[in-house]
Every structure is written in C-alpha cells, then in structure tokens.
Amino acid sequence: MAAVDTARAHAQAVLRVRGLALAVAALPAAVAVVLLAGRITGRIGAPGAADAAAWDAARWAVCAVAAVTLLVAGLAARTYRRAVPPQTPVVPLVRAEAPELYRLIDELADRLDVPAPSAIALTPDCDSWLEDVAPAAPPARHRRRARGAEAPAPVLVVGSPFLWWMRAGELRALLAPVVAGTAAAADPEIAAARRFLRSLDASLADAPPPGLGGAPVPAAPRTARRGPAALTDRITRRLLRACRAHSAELERAVAGRASERARAVDYGLRIAAQEQVGLAYAGWDRLLTRVALPAWRLGRHPAHLNAGVVAALTELSRRDRLADGYSSRLGDRPACDLLEEPGAVDAAVSRLAAELFFGRPASGGWQELEWSDYPAEVVDAGWRARAAALQSALDGPAPQARPGAPTLTRLLVRLAEGDGEQLAAALTAQLARTTAPAPLLEPVRTGRDLLVDHVTAMVCCAAVDTAGATPGLDWLDGPVLLMRGVRRTDLAGPVAQAVEQGQDGPLRAWLDAAGVRLEKPVRL
User: Would you list the DSSP string of 73-89?
Assistant: First the structure.
C-alpha cells in the first residue's frame, strides 16, 4: 500500500497547487471586501477621521487590483474549462466486434479487483496504455446533479501488432499491469489531479499533440499569443512547473502499484510475453519502413498490415536461429481470434497507420491494396517510377527536342564517363521538387544513395522486360527481384561500383550473365 499512499500524497500536492492558485486569485478580493466593510461600518477609515483619505486611496487601489485579478482568474478558468485534451487517434472496438476480448479483459479486471475499462481501442503501434475519457456534458437541467458523478473508466488502448502476433494467454499477461491502472483512475484525488494537469496541458497555445502511446511529439512552432491569452499561458506554465515533479512521481507510484497488483496474475507468462514485445516492435518497424512505405508513396495502403507483421516475424523466426523457439508458439490460439472479424479490424487499423505515419497521398485518395497485388502494383510500379525519374536526370534540366532513349547502354556510358556526381545532384534536386517527405522517420539519404536506388530500379525494369525476371515481395526487406523464382541478392555490389567508382564492368558482366539486353529501351 506504500505506492498507493505515495500516489495520493503527490496527487494532494498537485491539488494544493491548484488550491493555492485559487487562494492567490481570491486574496485581493477578500482584502477589498474587508476594506469596504470597514468603510461601511466606520471601523476602518471612518469619514472625518484623520486617516480617511489614505484608507480611501487604499480601498480604490485594492479594489482595482482585485478586479484585475478576478478578471485574469476568470479568463484562465474559462480557458481551462474549455480546453479539450487531445486524444490519440485509435480504432474503437465495440463489444459486439470483440465479445471474447471484452470478456477476457473483464475477467482480468475481476481477478485484479479493479474496475474494468469502459472500452477497448486499437492503435497501430507496439504499445498499450489507458486513456482517460472526458465525460460528456449533461443537459443544463441535469448539470448540477451530474457534478458529483464519477468520471467514466478509462479506455484500454492496445497495440494492434500485439493482438495479431501474441497468443491469447500472452496478451492477457501483458495487459495485466495496464488494466491494473484503472484502480488509480477510480481514486477521486488522483483523478482530480490528473484532470487538472490535463486541462493545463491542453490550454497551452503551443502544447504539442500526443503521438502514439500518448507521448507528446514535436510540433511546428506556433505564433506567440498576445494580450490576455499570453498572460494566461504564462500563468499556466508557472502552474505546470510547480506541479511537474509531483506529476512525475504520481505516475511513477501509480505504475509501481499497478505492476505490484498484477504480479499475482500470469507473472511467469508475462516474462515470456515481454520477449515478444521486442520482437513485435522490430518486425512492425521493419514492415512499415521496408514494405508499407513504398506502397504509401504510390497512394496504396496495404489493407492487412497486422497480418503482414505476422508473416514478417514468422519469416524472421525461420531465418534467425535465435528465434527458432518462437515458431513453436504459433500452434497456440492467436489473440486476434478474439475478434469477430479480424480482417475488417485489420483494414481499419492499416488505414489509420497510413494516415498517421505518412499523411495524405499526393494526388487522390488512398487505394486499398491486397498483399497478392503488391508485386505488380507497388514493386514494379515503383521501379518504373524511379527509372522514369532517372531518365529525366539523364536528359538534364533542359531536355532536348528528342530525349535520349531509356536504355541501360546510355546509363552505363554516363556512369563510366564519371557523371555519377552530376546525375546524383540532378536526381536529388528533382526529387526535392516532386516528392513530399513522409512523417515516418527515415534515415537521411545522400545523393549517391538515391542514385544507387534508381540505377538498381532501372536494372530491375530491364531484367523484367528482357530477361523474364519478376518483381517480388520479401516480408523483411520489401521489394525484391526474382529470376526463375529465386531472389537475386548479388546486384547491390556491381551497381555500387558503377555509381561510386565509375567501373561498369562488373555490372555489365552481371547483366550479360542474367541475359538482360542493354540496348532495348526500358518500359517506363
């Protein structure tokens, strides 16, 4: 119970800051009332007294200060009352869509002796948390009666990769400490302290929106507010600074208590489940950056990302000797079986992932993509788009009346002549004009890296057009080139030599061995 007492103590400290702020706001008004009452009763600065003029001046000054203080306090109170804490974008799950999952969480809450979450939602991230829900405003005639009503229980937000990769027992063990946190949400003092802190955060003009997991993400700096709003922001920041240490200790104590309470439920299985968290995170991150991002750039969003992460992690367990033990788990019931229609839920989460991590496509809306169509609609189309961009760089900023043919012969001659730097610069400038950066974090690419990618794409197009190669999908590496059904992994070295050193001999030898015709124009 030490953690509970610690959490309540820090919640009370936060509430004392709130109370002190109210007292400071009310103090000038209280002094003004005393002075006015003394004037009326004749006890302070009575008319005709020697000090009456001085007391009258003091009354006017204090009343003016009180009026300004109450006005500022009223503006701040209105700002805090109207501030809406930002909610993390999620895909809500109603009970009819996942009755077994709700039953599992209800039984878990019952075992932990805590209130059950009010709802369940999914997020396209490898994290899980409780998100408080602001109670709906009651009608005016019921508002006074509703003031004493308890806030609704928080929503349980579950990372969708966990639901597809983990087994049902593993998911229950992993969520036990999270669900145990509903006990703190039901505590009146802790809930009041959190509401106060959320209203302060939400009221700031430059408060960044929450990212996945509820953590703030960097936001573009906004124009500084002026006038009363600037004063309100200054007061808010002072209050937040006064509460910062207590807020951190409050959440630390709540997390410690939840972990302690959950220790009695599936503790041994939770240790094994934690190992799956790291694996799921690695597979999810790789799937997004290597597989999903090329599709998003073309305006396609894979409709079943969560099923894809299972395929990626299964492939990883097949390749990696250290992951051999993970494949034996796949015989157990997956947690996604707790959903009534996993495919429909996966599609909704996948669409949300595209909007969160990439944004809106450059032209038109999103087009849903099945994994079976990925090689043709993403791999081949992406190669040809990069080949076309490289062809534009070869033609130069001012194209001739008759641009050169898009052949490998022309490209290799330019590279052998040492034009790699010039092509890389032209390609970088062209992509900067035509390609919008994705919000999803990517490593910084140099001009040479981009040129290597585009040369590789043109070679792959030529191999498809003239040597019977086919585009393929690797769950861990994304787009790949298949020749006679076998993935070719030996192309990177010859391309790098041609781009970086101007040595086209190894690449010509590779192309000759593969049966690729250099003189035939590539279909763009």
Answer: HHHHHHHHHH--PPPPP
- Residue-wise pLDDT for 315-364, tens only, equals 887 776 555 556 566 677 899 999 999 999 999 999 999 999 988 887 77
CB burial of 368-378 (b: ≥16 within 10 Å; e: otherwise) equals: ebebeebbebb
Q: What is the C-alpha separation between 156 and 172, in angstroms, rounded?
A: 13
Tell me 371's DSSP state: G
* Alpha carbon of residue 356 to chain centroid: 7
**Nearest-angstrom CA–CA distance, 314 and 330:** 9
Distance of alpha carbon 92 from alpha carbon 122, whole angstroms = 6
| Mean pLDDT, the chain, whole residue set | 86
Residue 457 CB-half CA count within 13 A: 25
Cβ neighbour number for residue 51 with a 10 Å cutoff: 11
CB neighbour list of residue 149: distance below 8 Å, 6 or more residues apart: 135
Radius of gyration of the chain (CA): 32
CB 324 within 8 A of CB 317: yes
Q: Which of 182, 177, 187, 184 is nearest to 116 (CA)?
A: 182
Please name the residue that has the structure tokens 């009343």: 63
Does an H or E element contain 438, and which? none
**What are the structure tokens assigned to 432, written together?**
């900067």
What whole-number distance in Å separates Cα of residue 238 and Cα of residue 114? 35
Rounded to whole angstroms, the Cα distance separating 289 from 121 reads 24
What is the pTM assigned to this prediction?
Answer: 0.84
Report the alpha-carbon distance of residue 117 to residue 179 in Å, rounded: 7
pLDDT score for 469:
95
Written as one letter, the residue type at 287 is L
* Alpha-carbon distances, residue 353 vs 18, 20, 465 (angstroms): 38, 44, 34
- Name the packing angle between helices 228-262 and 52-82 (round to 10°): 50
**Tokens at 168, concatenated:** 């049902």
**How far is CA 284 from each of CA 77, 271, 482, rounded to the nearest angstrom?**
43, 20, 24
- Within 263-402, where are the H helices? 267-286, 293-297, 305-319, 342-357, 374, 381-395
